[in-house]
Write a structure and sequence with these properties.
The protein has eight helices and eleven strands. By secondary structure, the chain is an alpha+beta fold. The chain has one domain: Phosphatase 2c, domain 1, CATH 3.60.40.10. The strands form two sheets. Strands 1, 2, 7, 8, 10 and 11 form a six-stranded antiparallel beta sheet that branches. A hairpin with a 2-residue loop joins strand 7 and strand 8. Helix 1 runs antiparallel to helix 2 and helix 2 runs parallel beside helix 8. The longest helix has 25 residues. It starts with 7 loop residues before the first strand and ends in a 9-residue tail after the last helix.
Length: 278
């Protein structure tokens, strides 16, 4: 099995920013399990903070100690945790008569059988970037009105900026939850950045690329992002979680046929269930 801690370096920081009165962002780091996530709560008051914390706690409970489990079991666990969090957030909001309460989430799940593979799961507009060979790639697609209009090639010129940024998917909202999964290749030297919109909303892609390319020390990267976001005005909470991929043994683990069949089945069916936690 893969020893994630041997080739993954990371650092994380979350900040209230310069305008907001509380911090509704959250993050989760489980380096020994090869799992990292960032959450951005919404709903006003303490509702967003509670929503992001509920997701963090559900993911931590489901993913802690899973380094020896199959890729399918791990994907299934993340999907299940998010649906449980959805139910918990909806119950919390209903009991307090909140009109809206929820949170975005973006996570990366490294493969315990093949260190050169990972799964990305996200809901909302928290993002995952990858810097590879000096070039920046955005891995996730924002679940917003504006981005989905662009995907459908619709004209957004006459649409208000406020509407364009409205989230179309959150964990905890009234709609059915559909996390988006993306499989990616992992290479030594990659630098991944999980962040809330308080980061990318303040900094353009050129600045994000330059910061990631400036160092392979995750703590240095985090501090540079913090300085740049604050200098840009930091009008929202912001969370920064860079992961630097070092050299790893590229020899994949070979499971027995039954274990592989079970894992492949879970990889396929994990996204089909929508009733977890009910």
């Amino acid at each position: 099995m893969t020893n994630f801690a041997s080739f993954l370096q990371y650092h994380a920081n979350t900040d209230m920013g310069l305008v907001r009165k509380n911090n509704e962002d959250n993050y989760l780091v489980l380096p020994e399990d090869g799992f990292f996530a960032v959450m951005d709560g919404m709903g006003g008051g303490d509702a967003g903070e509670v929503a992001s914390k509920l997701i963090r706690n559900m993911l931590a409970k489901s993913m802690k100690g899973t380094a020896d489990e199959s890729p399918g079991e791990r994907k299934y666990s993340v999907q299940q945790a998010l649906h449980k969090a959805q139910t918990a957030i909806q119950g919390y909001a209903w009991a307090r008569h909140y009109n809206s309460m929820g949170s975005t989430v973006v996570s990366i799940l490294f493969n315990p059988w093949n260190p050169d593979q990972a799964l990305v799961c996200h809901v909302g507009d928290s993002r995952l970037y990858c810097l590879r060979n000096g070039e920046l790639f955005l891995i996730t697609q924002d679940h917003t009105v504006g981005n989905e209009m662009l995907q459908r090639k619709q004209n957004i010129d006459n649409v208000s900026p406020q509407l364009l940024h409205v989230l179309t998917r959150v964990v905890g909202g009234g709609q059915q939850l559909h996390p988006q999964w993306t499989g990616i290749a992992v290479c030594p030297g990659d630098i991944y950045l999980l962040c809330s919109d308080g980061v990318w909303g303040m900094l353009d892609d050129a600045t994000i690329e330059a910061i990631l390319a400036s160092s392979n020390n995750p703590q240095t990267i985090t501090e540079l992002f913090r300085q740049h976001v604050l200098a840009a005005g930091a009008d929202d909470n912001f969370t920064i979680l860079p992961i630097v991929v070092g050299p790893f043994d590229s020899t994949p683990f070979t499971p027995d046929p039954v274990e592989k069949e079970e894992s492949d089945l879970l990889l396929r069916v994990a996204e089909e269930r929508v009733d977890y936690g009910r």
